[in-house]
Structures are given as structure tokens and as C-alpha cells.
Design brief:
CATH topology of the largest domain: Peroxisomal Thiolase, Chain A, domain 1
Number of strands: 15
Strand content: 15-25%
Number of helices: 13
CATH superfamily of the largest domain: Thiolase/Chalcone synthase
Helix content: 25-40%
Largest sheet: 11 strands, mixed
Radius of gyration: 20 Å
Distance between the termini: 18 Å
Amino acid sequence: MKRVVITGIGAITPIGIGKENYWNSLLKGNSGIGYITRFDTKDHDVKIGAEVKDFNPTDFLDKKEAKRMDRFAQFAVAATKLAIEDGNINLDDLNKDRIGAIIGSGIGGIETLEAEVNRYTDKGAKRVSPLFIPMMISNMAAGQVSMTFGLTGASMTLTTACASATHAIGESFRMIKHGYLDMVVTGGAEASITPVSVAGFTSMKALSTRNDDPSKACRPFDKERDGFIMGEGAGILILEEFEHAVKRGATIYAEVVGYGSTSDAFHITQPDPDAKGASRAISLALEDGKVDYKEVGYINAHGTSTYFNDKLETLAIKNVFKEYAYELNISSTKSMTGHLLGAAGGIEAIATALALNTGNIPPTVNYEIPDEECDLNYTPNIMVKKDIKYAMSNSLGFGGHNASILLKKY
């Protein structure tokens, strides 16, 4: 089996564009949550979100090509460009048949979908854009990345709701581990802060309605949490076979050593009440990496700021880590970035890798009122310095999809 390492990072997030901006904002506890500006929210009960600020697609893309992409695909290509630059990768020196693009997206081009449905309703069938389908379909994050950079290895999209990006990273890890590819561009991209999307999640009672104080609205594991905040962006990582990385003199952020994937087979939105599926995903990642649970020092939790998720993810951690669970540092970086849905696992894997690489653990902000059902160490409000050997990132999606990845300090 091949070893797999992370050699490039690209982040387009509500708290900063680029690795340094994103990471520094996380450590400072900066919030990217504010009032939604992308559409008029006067008819919406939810008026807050975590938008990417100051994103100009033509900073990364030709203007004509950018117009042929939905915002989520623009994010994917932009984050990939940043990751390739960060990894000091000269693609012309590499065998592109051995480089893949495996990128998660939970929803895909919903902005395009809404716009074209409105056009159809207002102006008729003949006015629907010929670009509607290729801009809307969720595989275009991976498709546009592969075309933009000429990557001719395996190209695919994982769509498992909020677990999409973590599943993409895990399946990329397996592709390299088993020798099918030398390098994979992986992670997730999402851009679903749109009128219908926000209305749908609001109708489900999934979103926070704390409109009067946006930066305090997302409060994972806090007793007064009332729902998640819709976010957008992309987190892209370059996964690379170890010897391939060493040969080209790559900087290595962390090693990917384990991956677990399970299904609750329980409910379309609620987690299994015994947290069996999430527990087993964590356990499988540890088994895959041949790592004892007491060697793990940090978990980047799914931590959505919803009642059931936070309670049951806490239970899953206790199920696996037993009494040692209380010694772990856990944090939900969604408290700052909001929930990027299918892209969440991408930016959270980046945070996990950088925590290992730097010895700095980002906080869970807005943690003020302890909940007796959520009684672990969530690294409240202030980052901590801690030298850790192993760290995990969890993602749990509607439909009962669970994914965990295990990273090792390099």
C-alpha cells in the first residue's frame, strides 16, 4: 500500500481567500457570518449567512470561461489554482494521466437552476440557456477542474450532502493508496446561498433565526444553539503519493492514514439516536490507520449548531473514545465559517491538517452556555497550542451519510 500526503491547500471561504487568510482568521476566532447580500431577504425569516467576500472569478479565470460556470464551479477552479500554486506544482512536469479530480458538492449549481427556472416561467421554453445543464449539474466542479488544468486521471463528484467533501477526500486517499493515481485534486465546492435554498432549509427548521446578532448566531455545542448558518466556498487539497511528493521536493502538511464511511440507514435528516453510524465511521478510520484512539489529540467536529447533530456527534465521540474523550480537544470551525454543506469537509480537512502542522488548534467560538448533553472539551472561544500526533475530521450528512478521515503529523 502507498502512503498518501497532503502537499497543497486552496481555500475560498467566508473568513478569507487563500490558506493564510483562512487559517489566521480561524485562529483569531473571526466570524464570516453576516447579513445576506446576494438576494433580497425581506420575505425570508432567515436573513443571515456566511458569504465569500471579495471574490472576483476573473482573478482566477478567463472572463468568458467564468461566465460559463456556476458560482460553485468557479469556487472549485479558483481553490484548485490556489492549491496548485501552494504546492509548487508544475503540471507540465507530471504525468497528467495519473492525476485525478475528485471533488464533492452536495447541491451543485442551484443558483443557475433557480435563474433558469425563473427565465422559463417568465419568458418560455425557448429562452432557457443552452448552458443551463452544463452549469447546473454537480459534477462540473470536478469536470471544470479537470478541463482547466488538463487532468486526465479519474474525474468524479461525490454527492453525499454535508459529507460530500470528506467522502471525496477519503475516496481520493484510497485511489492513491491502492496505486491507481499519483495525485488527486480533492475536497469540495458549494454555492447555495440562494432564495429557494435558504427558504427550503428554513422550512425544515434547520437554520438559525438569530438575525439580530449574526456573528453570534452559530454556536455549536452551546445550550442555546438554534440551527446552522448557510455558508459557501471551496476547500481543495492536493493529495499525493508519498514517494512522488518527496521526489519533486514537495512541502508536506500532513499524512492521510485512515478513512471510515458508513450509513445510519435511519432517517432522511435526523441522525441515528444511538449514533451508531457516526461511531462506526470514526472507528473504521482508526482501524484503517492502525491507530489507538488514545493517540488522537484533536477532532474537527461536524458541529453544525443544531440540536441533534451536536448531541449525537458528542455521543459518537464518547462511544469510540470512552473516558479519553474528555482529554481530546474538539472544535467546530463552522462557528466561524458557517456550514458549507458539500464543501464543509474540504475546508475542515484543511483546518485539521494545519492544526497538526502548526500545533495550533482553532476554537469553537460563541460557546457560552454549557449543555449537559454536550460536555466535552470544545476548545471554547480561544485557540490553544498543543503538539498533536493524530487528528480527525468528521462529516455527517442528510440521508445518514457518515465520513471520518484520520490525519497524522508529518
